[in-house]
Amino acid sequence: MKKIMESLREIKSAGKIVYLTKPEPNKEFLQSLENRTASAFIDVLLSEADKKTASEIIARTAKKVGIKTSYILNHTVDTLVSTEGTILPLMETVFDVLDKKASGEITLKAAEKLGMNIFDGYVKEKVTEWTTKTWTETIARFVFNPQGTGIVFSEISKDRIVAHVIKCPTPGRAGKAPHLTCPFSYGYARGLWKKAFLEGEVLMGGTMAHGAPTCGFTFYVKADKEHAEMREKIKRYLTKEEEMKLL
Fold first, then answer.
1. Distance between CA atoms of residues 193 and 204, nearest Å
2. What are the sequence ranges of the domains in the chain?
3. Would you say 210 and 178 are in contact if contact means Cβ atoms under 8 Å apart?
4. What is the pLDDT of residue 5?
5. Which residue spans within the chain are E strands per DSSP?
6. What DSSP designation does 141 have?
7. CA 84 – CA 206 distance, rounded (Å)
8. Which of 49, 103, 162, 223 is the most buried (most CB within 10 A)?
9. Which fold does the domain 2-238 belong to in CATH?
10. How far does CA 153 lie from the centroid of its chain?
11. How many CB atoms neighbour CB 68 within 10 A?
12. What's the chain's average pLDDT?
C-alpha cells in the first residue's frame, strides 16, 4: 500500500484534505495509449457503422495521414494503428461523414473501450474488492500519472469520488475541438471506472474546452435512475446535440 500512496500528494485546502496526482508523462505508456486509442476507435467504427461507410472513413483517414498504399481494409487498419498522428484525422473524418448522434456514440464507446483496455493492460494491483480509495490510488499510479494528467480529488467517500482535471492530455492527442475531446475524456474515465464498479456511473460537469476552469467528474459507486437520465443529457451536450448548462 505504501507504493500506491506515493502516487498521490496530500494537501490541505480550504480547511480540508484533498489529493493531487503526480503527473510524470511516460513516453512508452503514451505511445501505447495512442496505438490503443486508434485500435479501439477503429474496432468500434467497424462494429457500429455499415461496412461501406466504415471503409470510406478508414480510406479517407489513411489518405490524410499519408499512407501511400493501395487500399486493403485489414492492411490499412493495421498501418493506421501503428502510424503516429492517426487519432485526430480519424476522429475528424468520423464527424465529417456521420451525423452528430452517430459520431458521438462511436466516440464515447471507443473511449470507454480504451479505458477498459488500459485498465486491463496496466493496473497491476490484484484487488479482490475495490473501494473508492483503492481505485483512486491505483489508477493514479498506473494510469493518470504516467499519462500526465493533473487531477485534484476533492472528495473520496465510500459512495463517490469528486475529481477536477486541471491538466488534460486529451487535446494534445485528439485535437482541441470540444465535440471531439470532451466525449472522449468522458468515455475514457467511464471505462476506467466501470472496470472496477460495474454498477457505478460517471457524470461529467463543466469542461475546460467549454470555458470552465476545470473538467469536473463525479464517480458514483452505484448508479440510480437520475444518474442514467443525466448521463444521456451529458452525452447530447458533449456532442453538440443539446445546449445545456451543467453544474
1. 13
2. 2-238
3. yes
4. 62
5. 8-13, 16-21, 150-156, 160-167, 201-204, 215-220
6. I
7. 30
8. 103
9. H-NOX domain (3.90.1520)
10. 17
11. 6
12. 86
In angstroms, what CA-CA distances link 159 with 59, 63, 200, 218?
46, 48, 10, 10
d(CA 86, CA 226) in angstroms, rounded, equals 37
Residues 138-172 have pLDDT tens digits of 999 999 999 999 999 999 999 999 999 988 766 55
* pTM (whole model) above 0.85: yes
Cell numbers at 14, concatenated: 480550504
Distances (CA, A) of 128 to 61, 119, 148, 196: 42, 15, 27, 10
On whether the CB atoms of residues 172 and 94 are closer than 8 A, the answer is: no
Q: Check residue 65 and give left, alpha or beta (phi > 0: left; psi -120 to 50: alpha).
A: alpha
Q: In Å, what is the CA distance from 27 to each residue of 13, 52, 129, 165, 166? A: 32, 36, 31, 21, 21
Q: List pLDDT tens digits, range 72-111.
A: 667 778 888 888 888 888 888 998 999 888 888 999 999 9
* Helices 178-194 & 225-238 angle (0-180, nearest 10): 150
Instruction: Read off the DSSP letter of residue 221.
Output: S
